[in-house]
Amino acid sequence: MHRYIIKRVLLMIPVVLGVLFIVFSILYLSPGDATTTILGTSWTPEGAAEIRSHLGLDDPFFVQFFRYLARLLQGDLGASYVTGLPVIQQVKISFPNTAILVAVSITLAVLVSIPIGTRAAIKPNSLFSAISTAFALVGISAPGFWIGLLLVLLFSLKLGWLPAAGLGSWKAVIMPSIVLSLSYMAGLSRMMRSSMIEAMRMDYIRTARAKGVKSHDVTHTHALKNALLPTITLIGSYTGEMLGGAVICETVFAIPGMGRLMVESVLSRDIPCVLAAVTIMAICVAGMSLITDLAYAFFDPRIKAQYARERAVG
Questions:
Q1: How many domains are contained in the chain?
Q2: I need a labelling partner for 80 at 20 to 30 A (CA). Which of 206, 224, 251, 257 fits?
Q3: In-domain check, residue 42
């Protein structure tokens, strides 16, 4: 099992490096000059040349890239071209907001979708199953920004129950987390329903029923554990998508998160902020992939048996 964990950790390194290389290449080749962002209206050829020399922008591409990696390993994300402040200060403000939003959203999606999918699979031809399928279609099809605006109009402007912007209190997390989790909630419930139906048709389920095992134990002890395997993979994938897709919620609800920081940095051509945001998101997505693999290994006895057999042979 330890070999499995070490292997997955080592696989994260080339993935993160590949993402950084691609983003760095796009920013390097994109038109425009960073000196115009730094100097603004006071731009002069002499001042631009001095800035480029000071920042090392005249160096070859690979020199700039490896210098950025060296600084990154030291925890230095650079300074913003717009504000002149260290990027790490902006990240410390933005990242916790996005982390809270994503954590609440994925938790809400899991707590709602798994019971709904399980219940719909137990009685696939019932009214509840039909309603859950319709809910999943609506959740996948409805645009997130549209649902967010409707929730703001109803619960903030008309009823006055929830704040319309920011993350000043726990109430402010409710609407953004619902908007962010709705489409993923629908996808998870559909996956859970189909996986559970397939698991309920397996031979070991029929054998358990024939032995007189209680229906509740058959469903929640035997079938549910195996049906969770593809759902766990989807949860890890959705968590990574939420980190990148949170920009819609952060824009609608005026939340100063990582997605909003990255979009504003792209528009202002603040390259250090863009690189910092992409780096952190890439590490978080790779980390979620690692956690998903470990969870999959925990629930799937075949992986445990494989590495136990390899250890015995070795």
A1: 1
A2: 251
A3: no
Residue 240 CA to residue 63 CA, distance in Å, equals: 31
Please tell me the distance from the alpha carbon of residue 182 to that of residue 108, in angstroms, as a whole number.
Answer: 9
Cβ–Cβ < 8 Å for 116, 194: no
Q: Distance between alpha carbon 187 and the CA centroid of its chain, in Å?
A: 15
Do the domain assignments include residue 138? Answer: yes
Structural domain includes residue 37: no
Taking CA atoms, 265 is separated from 88, 260, 268, 269, in Å, by 14, 8, 5, 6
Question: In degrees rounded to 5, what are phi and psi of residue 81?
Answer: -70, -25
Q: How far apart are CA 252 and CA 111, in angstroms?
A: 25
CA–CA distance, 263 with 261 (Å, rounded to integer): 6
- Look at residue 296 and tell me if it is in a domain: no
pLDDT at res. 313: 52
Question: Could you give the dihedral angle defined by the CA atoms of residues 296, 298, 300 and 304, in that order, rounded to the nearest 10 degrees?
Answer: 120
Structure confidence by residue, pLDDT tens digits, 84-108: 788 888 888 888 888 888 888 888 8
Token pair 């799937």: residue: 300
Tell me, what CATH number does 239's domain have?
1.10.3720.10
What is residue 79's three-state secondary structure? strand
Q: Determine the residue type at 136.
A: A
6: Cα within 13 Å, side-chain hemisphere: 4
User: What CA–CA distance (Å, rounded) separates 210 from 206?
Assistant: 6
Q: Note whether 39 and 50 are within 8 A (CB).
A: no
Strands (E), the chain: none
Give the structural domain span for 226: 95-256
Rounded to whole angstroms, how far apart are CA atoms 291 and 298? 10
Residue % of the chain over a pLDDT of 90: 0
Residue-wise pLDDT for 56-92, tens only, equals 777 788 888 888 888 888 887 877 877 778 888 888 8
